[in-house]
Structures are given as C-alpha cells and as structure tokens.
Task: inverse folding
C-alpha cells in the first residue's frame, strides 16, 4: 500500500488489535481545577529510574494544563470502573463530582478503587506527531487485587488468563480420526454443568431430591405461586418436568403446599431447603473464584450470559414480577 | 511510601495490572542478520503522521542493531502465536528458522499470521531511563481477524469482549430479597447447557433418543467397546445411566449391538447417528463463533476447561486408549 492510500479508519482499526488496559490520568490545572482524561496509550518505560509514559492529542483542551503540571497520576482502572472510564472519556464538566478523592503525595487528584495507581512527577515531554508524549517519574504507586478493565478493538473486554501449560482434559492426545473431541463447546459446557451439579447432588441426595425437584424448588423460590403447568413452562427447556407424582412427593416431604386454587407454593421448610441449595451453589462458586481468580470467573459469566442470550429459545422470564394471585 | 523504599518487584507487579497485547519487533542488523524480540511496551502515538512507539532495555544485545536499522516491523501477535512469543522472548539463536517470512516494503523480517502488522521507518529515539524509546513512522500495515494474544500480570490471557450494554437476562432488576439471581455461576452454566441441549433435542427427538441415550452413544463413539457397567461409569456423574431396558431399546433401534462377551459397540447406523449429533453440535458452535466472535468463544472454552479441571470428581478419562478386548 502506498502512503497516498493510507486509510486512517483502517489504521485505527489495526491499532485496535493491540489490547490495552484503560487508565485515567489526572492533574491539577494552574488555576486549581482538577483535570482528568481516559487514556489507553499508557505504558511502562524504565524500572531504574521508574518511568512511565502516555500520550495526549495536541488538540486536547487539557494539553497545556498537563504540560504545566508538576505532577500527574495514572490510574489503571478495574472492571468496576467502566462508567468512570466513559465519564473521563467525554468532555463533560465536573467529572470528579461523585468521586471521594484520596490524598496523594502531590496535588494531582487520586481516585480510589483502581487496579493500580502511579503517582508521577512530570519529567519530560516529547513530540509525537499529532500527540505529545508525557514521560513521568513514578514517585509512589499502589495496587489492589481488582481485575483490570481491558480495551480491545474499540470495545471494553475482560481477560481470562491462560495457565502456563495449556489446559488439557485428557491424558492422551486426541485421536485424529475421532471427530468428537474434548474441545467441543457443547461437551465442555455439559461437563461443567454436570460436575457442578455432581457437587450439589450430595445435598440433594440427603433430601432424596432428584434434579427435577431441585430445579422446581429453585423456580418456586423466585416465582412464588405457580400452577403445575406454569412451573413446567419454566422447566421445559431442561428436558425435565414435574409429574403429579413428583408434586405429591414434594407435598409429602413438606417442601411445597397446595393453595386453594391449584397453585403451589414453597412451605417454610421448602424455602429453607432451597436457601440451603443456593448457599451450596454459592460456596462452590466462591471456591472456584478462589482457584481461578475473580476476574476470570467474571469473564466466564459474561461469556455465558452472552451465549444464553444468543441461544435463548424464548424462555419465560424467571425474574418477571408475578401477577397477584 | 518514600522513594527510598521503592520496591522493584512490587513496581513490576503493579505495572502488570496494565493489560497489553504482545508484539514481536523485527529488523535486520547491519551485518544482514535478522533480529527480533518480544515486547509489550508497544503503543500507538499519532494518527497524522502515523506514529507508533515501543521501548527496549539499553542492556539488550539488539539495542545497537535496532538503533542503526532504517526500518523495523511490529507484529501484534495472535492467540496462536504464544510459542512464537516465547521463542522471541528468549535469547536463543536462529529464532526465525521455522518461520516462512513474507516480503515487506523494507528489509525488516515480516512474520505471517499475526493479528496486525506495522511496517515502520525508524524515525527517532528518546532516552527513557534504562530503556530507549523507539518512535517509528508507519509506512504500511495490515490486519487479520485473528484473536490477539494478551498479557496481564505476567501471564498470557485471552479477552472476552463486553457488549456496550451490560448483559442482563431478565427484563426486571433482581429483587433484592431474592438471593437466587441470574448472576449465580451454577445457574448460568446449567442454563447454557440446557439451551444448547435444547437445540440438539430436535435431532434427538426425531430418533426418539433421550438425553441418556445421546450421552451413551457419544461415549461409545470414543470408547468403542464397552460393557454396560463400563459405559455407566462414564455416565455416572451426569446423574444419567443406561438400564438394561435402554440397552434393549438401542439394540432394537439398530444403534448398538452386543458382541460375544457382554460388550457393546455402535452399529454402523449408530456410528452414523453419533456423527450426525457431533455435526449438529459443531454447527451450533460455528453459529456461536459467528455471533460471539472466535476469540471470545476460545476464551470461554479455556475458562470451562480450567473449571472442569478444578471440579473434576475423578472421572474416568474418556479419551484414554482402550485395552484390546
């Protein structure tokens, strides 16, 4: 491609292939106003002396103020700060109004709850075409174990970390002629589901509950008064359903009771049993967060929600407010 | 923290909170040797003129060669190039020996199969403490739709992109008193599983196959000769099992056959049915890749494999080579 044909849009897009974190850079303008903006052009430069850099468009309204500032702070944003990132990426007034700033070593605003922060002395700037490159000496820094916000191809993202060794489920390499392998998404999701359910089953077995009973009690924990038909509408996609016999069993176990009009409801011990199931499910999840990392589990959940939205066969909304019955 | 206490290890770790892509930078040394190294200090600087930067330790063996090079190329690595990243991060000789280099606009080596590439003229360097900052003018670039490799906290990672709007499954905000909400990992995995199985079920219903039959045929597609007991060892954790009645049904349907010694095997039409199921599962996966993006589905699979490894109750290895029977 000759330079004459240089396509700015395509160039931006190609640059977007390089994933970055998201930072907010802050300083105090000469008139005392706090200033701040979102930047993903941050990077580390040197360990000794500790130097970092970022760059700012020369057309930015804040360029003079940053240039004159003696100090600026870099905030590596966490997953929870996406709204903050949007606020500081816009030109709105008073971006700091809802933030409880902390005290730093300089007059540059210090924002809480970040993945990491670098308090810097503004040491030198270099010309960088339509941008100015700021280099700062890190005077102080801190870090919290909050999963960082990520930016890629113009979108926010989360990361799922790869273990050092590639993850393999089988001790054997997949036989080449076998097209059913451990990399099939449906297999991975099914096995994940059944392995988690397997851990739940210890509790369920104690109460002689089958999967379908467990699913039914969970639905009735949310949608509190349901006819058998309505209940089964929620269960249908799982391939499970409750028969009259199942209902009789759950009534005999004092887990559900029949109200006047063919409507069923959890009894107080049914409520208790369901809460016990939720507590167990949460304990399993906590354990996984411990082992896989919070950011990774968040990324997993995000992907599952997107998958669910894409494969939803039109399920009734489990959390929809009920008509009074 | 006073500067005297500046902890290099902690500083490195805090810098690692800022997520980056991974690049390989290449050039040709004055003696004609191709040189290259892995760097995550890359960033964009300017659109007009198109400038990018990266920095290199002054102690690097290649620093003089890069300094003298008229051109260097930046390769934004894809997920598939993790090994390449390791190779170029080490000091090994002949890093280029297995690479089919492509022709670029300069003498700098051009590596194929990257997410993006920037062919640059070495314009200026700036001092950056123990590093040298290289700024280059982008003369040419290209991009492929390959999910980029990501680096965070000293580990490789993959990204799961966040949609612009947060993903919510329910039209209602979760009732605060209801602790069973759509954010529970077990619920998300279960619903994902059942929604995918729901799509499979159209095919299964045509063949009057229940979930347990489907699971059994899938196992027998991989482990080809199994007794009923062995088969059920593989199914046990799903809560499903095959009864003698189920086996009789599958034999009557000509999907499996009994060999001499109580061992069962797929018939050719059983084989065909199972391959049909796999094809359907792969079609569903292809559709999801189309809708969610290849990189995101890869990240999802990676997380599921890690979850499976952490929750494995000690399942028999489905892909283990069988003893001859």
Result:
């Amino acid at each position: 491609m000759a330079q004459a044909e240089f396509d700015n849009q395509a160039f931006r897009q190609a640059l977007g292939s390089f994933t970055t974190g998201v930072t907010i850079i802050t300083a105090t303008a000469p008139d005392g106003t706090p200033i701040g903006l979102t930047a993903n052009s941050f990077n580390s430069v040197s360990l000794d002396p500790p130097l970092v850099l970022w760059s700012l468009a020369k057309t930015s309204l804040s360029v003079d103020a940053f240039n004159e500032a003696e100090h600026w702070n870099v905030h590596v944003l966490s997953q929870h700060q996406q709204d903050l990132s949007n606020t500081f990426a816009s030109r709105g007034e008073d971006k700091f109004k809802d933030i409880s700033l902390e005290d730093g070593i300089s007059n540059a605003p210090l924002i809480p709850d970040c993945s990491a922060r670098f308090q810097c002395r503004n040491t030198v700037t270099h010309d960088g075409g339509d941008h100015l490159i700021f280099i700062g000496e890190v005077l102080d820094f801190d870090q919290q174990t909050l999963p960082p916000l990520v930016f890629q191809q113009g979108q926010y993202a989360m990361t799922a970390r790869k273990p050092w060794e590639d993850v393999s489920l089988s001790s054997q390499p997949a036989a080449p002629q076998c097209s059913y392998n451990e990399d099939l998404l449906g297999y991975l999701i099914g096995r994940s589901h059944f392995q988690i359910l397997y851990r739940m089953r210890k509790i369920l077995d104690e109460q002689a509950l089958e999967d379908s009973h467990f699913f039914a009690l969970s639905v009735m924990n949310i949608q509190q008064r349901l006819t058998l038909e309505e209940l089964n509408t929620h269960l249908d996609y799982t391939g499970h359903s409750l028969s009259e016999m199942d209902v009789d069993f759950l009534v005999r176990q004092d887990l559900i009771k029949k109200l006047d009009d063919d409507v069923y409801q959890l009894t107080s011990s049914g409520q208790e049993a369901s809460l016990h199931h939720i507590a167990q499910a949460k304990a399993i999840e906590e354990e996984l967060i411990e082992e896989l990392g919070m950011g990774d589990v968040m990324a997993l959940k995000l992907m599952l929600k997107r998958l669910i939205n894409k494969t939803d066969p039109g399920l009734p909304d489990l959390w929809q407010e009920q008509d009074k019955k």
